[in-house]
Amino acid sequence: MKYFLLSLFIAILSYSNAMCQNYIFRGKTKYRSTPAYGFTCSACPSIERELNTSFAKTPTGGLMLISTKTMLDGRISGKVLIYLTDGSVITCLDKGIKDRVDDESKALYFLTTSEMETLSQNNISKIRFSIIEPGYPSSRIENYTASNSSLYSYNGELQYNTSEDIAALYE
């Protein structure tokens, strides 16, 4: 009986861990999100050479959170372009929601309902973003492109199936 109860407890604990979900927090509000994708950015000024990207569904559309390690006081800034496999492009405007913690720059971008629908039907090919490095006498802006490929295998694949994960947010 003791082993049965212990096995049952471990099974319940394992099930609850398997059912854990990803979230994006905006203030005190949390939104269920996709897993974080580590898009390859070979020219990025970071050790990891990745742009971490995740998406969340909101009542008015969606959110995209991007982050990368940056040197000095570099911050993700400006508009972000999302290139899709069907050839279309989604432009995300900078609303000034960003932070820099532990040498990692993070920025949050808003997406409309129709943009989220498009993302749920087409995989992301690339993401173009900018990092601004403040300096004297002027700041320097560098543009980068991160590709939908992983340095490591993701579910046996080297590319992320972003459309499937975004569509699952609506189930």
**Tally of alpha and pi helices:** 3
* Estimated radius of gyration: 18 Å
Q: Major beta sheet, specifics?
A: 5 strands, antiparallel
Count of individual domains: 1
CATH fold naming:
Immunoglobulin-like
Distance between the termini: 39 Å
Tell me the number of strands.
11
Which word captures the global form?
A: globular
Residue share in β-strands? 35-45%
- Helix/strand-derived category reads alpha+beta
**Annotated CATH architecture:** Sandwich
Low-confidence stretches: 1-19
Signal peptide: 1-20
Protein name: Copper resistance protein NlpE
Keywords: Signal
Organism: Hymenobacter gummosus
Quick overview of this protein structure:
By secondary structure, this protein is an alpha+beta fold.
Structure explained in plain terms:
- The protein starts with a helix and ends with a helix.
- Strand 10 and strand 11 (140-147) form a beta hairpin.
- It has helices at residues 2-18, 113-121, 162-168, and strands spanning 22-26, 29-33, 37-40, 50-58, 61-69, 75-84, 89-92, 98-101, 104-111, 124-133, 140-147.
- The protein is α+β, with helices and mostly antiparallel strands and 171 residues long.
- The protein has one domain (22-168): Sandwich (Immunoglobulin-like).
- Residues 1-20 form the signal peptide.
- It comes from Hymenobacter gummosus.
